[in-house]
């Protein structure tokens, strides 16, 4: 897959995430896809989930059911870059949202997407976990 095509596929996938359409979102992932986030990140802790999702169904469930339970309103993404090299795409983004308790959320993220056979096979997610915990759980 060319770098340009890989970048376009990941950009299309990002647009699909906001639809909450499980079939549309699922069509971008391999059946055995994985999504890895830092252990103990605030989202996983608050939702009682795993930072390592395995399988298309688990990822789609998170994006369509769990994510909107945590980030309930005003979700806005400011993309800073989509960088592609063959089947690897790196995305830099700042996400803002309103949490379920009404508090504001803002964090910077970096995602590394690895593609296989024209689909997303693995996502590695990086963020400021300390800031995430402060926004979600307070300073304690």
Automatic annotation (TrEMBL):
Matches recorded under SUPFAM superfamilies: NTF2-like (SSF54427)
InterPro entries cross-referenced by the UniProt entry: NTF2-like_dom_sf, SnoaL-like
Domain SnoaL-like: 10-120
Source organism, top-level taxon: Bacteria
Alphabetized Pfam families for the sequence: SnoaL_2 (PF12680)
Protein name: Nuclear transport factor 2 family protein
Organism whose genome encodes this protein: Nonomuraea montanisoli
